[in-house]
Structure prediction request, 476 residues.
Amino acid sequence: MPAGQPPPDESQLRVLVVDDDQNIADVLSMALRYEDFAVEQAANGQQALKGAEDFRPHIIILDVMLPDLDGFEVAKRLAERRAEIPILFLTARDTTDDKVRGLTLGGDDYVTKPFSVEEILARIRTILRRVGLAQDNGNHLSFADLELDDDTREVTRSGQLIELTDTEYRLLRYLMLHPRHVLTRAQILDHVWEYDFGGDARVLETYVSYLRKKLESHGPRVIHTVRGVGYALRMPRS
Amino acid sequence: MPAGQPPPDESQLRVLVVDDDQNIADVLSMALRYEDFAVEQAANGQQALKGAEDFRPHIIILDVMLPDLDGFEVAKRLAERRAEIPILFLTARDTTDDKVRGLTLGGDDYVTKPFSVEEILARIRTILRRVGLAQDNGNHLSFADLELDDDTREVTRSGQLIELTDTEYRLLRYLMLHPRHVLTRAQILDHVWEYDFGGDARVLETYVSYLRKKLESHGPRVIHTVRGVGYALRMPRS
DNA sequence: GGGAGTTCTCAGGAAACTCCCAGCTTCAGT
DNA sequence: ACTGAAGCTGGGAGTTTCCTGAGAACTCCC
Prediction:
């Protein structure tokens, strides 16, 4: 079954991605499908309203800047229809718009562009969990003596609290999502860094170094280098 | 086997190989046909798009450098058609980190030239497994007390973890794919080493030696020499 | 607009890996 | 048993990959 739409699967959660930038829409769609969401796209406000009606998404990812109606207008009309679909807004970083501020009051949320894929996924999980649709029980990851809590953003190793910066946290979280698996450099950069990151891929090594320093003061090495390939989270010994 | 089309067999998975270098396309085609894929070739972007339409491949191997459209353009147009065919990109080693970024999000992947045939086959298996088309039961090989896991890249012998370098791993993996079969030196070199390897064929002996040293510290000899021919993976008679 | 905290760049050096070499051992056939 | 061919393995050169410290650039907050 190579072509056409994937089969409608009622067990999947539906996400409507609304962005007029086709690249961003595609990146999000691919990542979400990979996470087993059903995804549809809309490129402007009118399509978004129609898509919300037809596709009945559980959540909408909505760019604030759209060619016709802006994101807030779309949200407003949906609210008038009593659609009650949670929305994750995408905004430009410098849009210090006060409008954005009030979003989290209504249970909606926003992410600034450029974002990393893992950041979007984390917000979506948070929102879905809040409205009771989370399919995974997972605001909490653990591996060996490592614990990571998404709600409090706390990381502990054998009970000891470890302070991590944002990037360190995202990196560790991504590794803990795939324990023992070897993750390639490309995979890690794609998921943990912002989608338009164009810099030196060696940042990754720097952050691995930071993480190791913090983690290894409380126990043996857990982030292992697989030379020529990437990194893997493992406990030492057979 | 350039002449005549193989008979259409609906049970086979279809691969479209897109490369303007006829040698590379042929090497890949032969290896894939041997693995029981149905294969067609395209030498440029336009042919690739046409081939995708007519042949309806389950996966496309796509060189980034093509005489007309580049590989990314081909991928983009396929995406616009909602073709949703996974793609394995081939890129030059130094092109790696720019545009290739982002590919692993959608489940696509890339391999740098020059590659080894086994590397390509491994990536294809991974991709097909992810989209639910893998006919093989997976990521795990075992032979006697040897276990090899492709996800974690871990190799154990009777439970004991064995650390292998990349080349050692690829060599052992190839042997384990054909247990008890005598594999000729040429076969092994062709599959495990990069296709443009021009060096001394005696590297193979060196690596067999490395592998034996690591494996035999945990049990009896499993890699047996077949003098004048090659090597075979066997358990000693009991 | 200064300061603290964070992210990223860069470069030197360390470590790991691949491959080649050369001398030695093993084997097959006489 | 002898001999040439084939295979084995320790040593090491050359290369690639990775680690890490130092500092520049950026952001956020007061």
Remarks:
- The two ends of chain B are 42 Å apart (CA to CA).
